[in-house]
Design goal:
The protein is built from nine helices and eight strands. The protein is of the alpha+beta class.
């Protein structure tokens, strides 16, 4: 059944097929509604060429669970798996609610982005809203887990806005719709600064300058990111508990 196809198979079908039949579209809507918001999925169905590789401005998010290794070592596999399922479900819902794309899960980390495959002039706003929503959802999960006698966890989130290559990347056997480039590397490396500043959300200056919503931030100045000659100014997004 189409419902068990991988995300990469869908992307291959999207690019190589004109999707002429409404029945095919319905199957794709059903199978892949968890990857894209309904609005983005409809836009792809109308124009599969949106998935072709291109350079464009995007906003990338990386979210990571702190001290995941020690947590997983102290929990039975079944409990750890259930907690991760609940966690990923809630975090994914928040990304989808802001019409972001859940790029991939990397172990306990989540990579998502905004600004593609459809243009989103308010992409920075959407990413920050999603990040704050993720922190709130985690607080509810922590209360639930505590009531069940389970340990709780904390997360760090980093957001960076920049120009990157977006499109289908991979081999003949497997490829994914993803975003690659320096802007992605920066987002990934900025996440680690949450531990240093005891924060939950760090955003780059390029992200902050594009915000149109009222967000309380704290300036942490310039930091040196591995692999880059120029330092990057970062800000902590304050969250309410």
């Amino acid at each position: 059944m189409l419902g068990i196809f991988s995300f990469s198979v869908f992307l291959g079908l999207s690019v190589t097929s004109s999707l002429r039949h409404e029945e095919e579209k319905q199957e794709i809507r059903s199978a892949f509604k968890n990857y894209f918001s309904p609005q983005i999925l409809e836009a792809i169905l109308l124009d599969p060429n949106r998935l072709e590789s291109q350079r464009r401005e995007v906003t990338i998010m990386f979210s990571d669970i702190r001290s995941f290794t020690s947590l997983s070592e102290n929990l039975p596999p079944q409990q750890m798996t259930r907690m991760l399922h609940e966690y990923f479900d809630e975090m994914t819902e928040e990304v989808i609610a802001t019409e972001g794309v859940v790029d991939k899960f990397i172990g306990d980390a989540i990579m998502a982005f905004w600004g593609a495959p459809i243009e989103q002039p308010d992409q920075a706003d959407r990413a920050v809203k999603a990040a704050k929503g993720m922190v709130k959802r985690l607080e509810k999960l922590k209360s639930k887990w505590a009531s069940e006698g389970l340990p709780t966890l904390e997360i760090g989130i980093a957001i960076n806005l920049g120009v990157a290559t977006v499109g289908n990347v991979g081999s003949k056997r497997r490829f994914d719709y993803t975003v690659i480039g320096d802007a992605v590397n920066v987002a990934s490396r900025l996440e680690g600064f949450n531990k240093q500043f005891n924060s939950h959300i760090i955003i780059s200056d390029s992200t902050r300058r594009q915000l149109t919503i009222d967000v309380e931030t704290r300036d942490h100045g310039e930091v040196q990111v591995r692999g880059r000659d120029e330092p990057i100014r970062i800000f902590e997004v304050r969250t309410e508990h």
